[in-house]
Design brief:
29% helix; NE0471 N-terminal domain-like; 3-stranded antiparallel β-sheet; single chain; alpha+beta; 178 residues
Length: 178
């Protein structure tokens, strides 16, 4: 399940479409968000908007629950793929809108640059099983770098979408062929 822990108003989770980097956990509370590596050791990558006390609390929680997070969350891979994350940060890319066309097996992700990313709904079993009403009940999180569906307990990231788009371009595939 993408949501790993709810504690003290903090939601610890992972994006289910990011499987090519070391085990990590994300944390969100209101407009504050962060990313923490779980391996090779617990290491804060970034915490945006949290005060010093909250940052210390988050670090303690992650140390306490890191083994549980690894067992129930992210898989561990050696590849530390940061190029797309750097692109997102340098270009200030954000998701601004998501549109769904279940009859076409398509989800459209609109970015602040007016670029439109195409994803197959069938790539995400929880989304594919949902009706349009539940699909439309999403929220943009992490300053537009992720999408969360509370009712579906699903979290997807801009980074994962960009990885899929790049993979399709490299392999010469269109969204309908993916």
């Amino acid at each position: 399940m993408p949501t790993l822990l709810l504690l003290n108003g903090l939601r610890f989770f992972f994006y289910s479409n990011e499987n090519n980097e070391p085990a990590h956990v994300l944390v969100i509370k209101g407009n504050c968000y962060g990313k923490i590596w779980l391996e090779p050791s617990v290491n804060i990558v970034y915490l945006e908007g949290f005060n010093n006390k909250e940052a210390k609390d988050i670090e303690e929680i992650v140390f306490t629950y890191s083994e549980r997070f690894k067992r129930t969350g992210m898989t561990t891979l050696i590849n530390n793929f940061d190029a797309i994350e750097k692109l997102i940060n340098q270009e200030k890319l954000k998701i601004v809108f998501v549109d769904f066309h279940p009859e076409l097996d398509v989800m459209l992700i609109v970015l602040n640059t007016k670029a439109v990313l195409h994803q197959r709904l069938s790539s995400y079993p929880r989304l594919m099983a949902a009706d349009i009403k539940n699909l439309l009940q999403y929220e943009l999180i992490g300053n537009g770098t992720g999408i969360h569906w509370t009712l579906l307990d699903e979290d997807l990231s801009l980074k994962g979408f960009l990885q899929d788009e790049l993979r399709n371009v490299v392999n010469g595939k269109q969204v309908a062929e993916a």
